[in-house]
Design a protein that fits this description.
It is globular, with a radius of gyration of 18 Å. The chain has one domain: P-loop containing nucleotide triphosphate hydrolases (Rossmann fold). The chain is of the alpha/beta class. 30% of the residues lie in helices and 24% in strands.
Amino acid sequence: MVIQFMSVAVEFQSVSFSYESTNVVENATFDIKTGDFVSIIGPNGGGKTTLLKLMLGILKPDQGSICLFGCPPRLNCSKVGYTPQFLSVDFSFPLSVLDVVLMGRIRTGFSLSHLWYSQKDRNAARHSLQILQLEELAEIPFRNLSGGQRQRVLIARALCGEPEILLLDEPTNNIDAASEQILFDTLTKLNQSMTIVVVSHDIGFVSQCVKNVICVNRTVAVHSASAMNGRTIHDLYGQHGMKLVLHDHF
């Protein structure tokens, strides 16, 4: 698939959002180009996950407007693959890895009158597992996997719906160095055909592949990855956040 790198995937215009009386995002205006690889960074409680949920249409702005490929987010949700930061799973339920990945096809191949997945759905799920180097684990119980393997399975689930944009919330949490490198390599390849947005504290990870960085601490500023430096990080996190995010890349 050839993507149009100059078109806009996500557009925020003067967006503000609050939880009750607490302002989380204030007057955010920015866009993400189709084909971009963006990292959203910021301190805890600064609004990173909120920004992602606004893009998804899970949350609605108090003020301003958001477009996803030119439409309100909820009208284009089929174009989005999403991996949340936390997943509640009943590990007593006997789901295989393939079962979990197939959930990514629910919106495209599943209905109450069609209580099974098609061969096309299964092929898409196995292809997603292959991309994440997990095809040999397809029939293994999901509960038996390591933390890194589970995270990669959830990304395979997001890919299974064949999205145009992939939104990942803290994908490197609780994974080992080997899984992180596989994830880095995979995202770099995927970015050749889709837009990727990653929320992360791990600047050492995202600095290897991102093109632009969205800095969020209630207000929003966008920088090219090459322009990030110690001063930018200090302004965003404050003195106590420096050790957490400042890597040799900067």
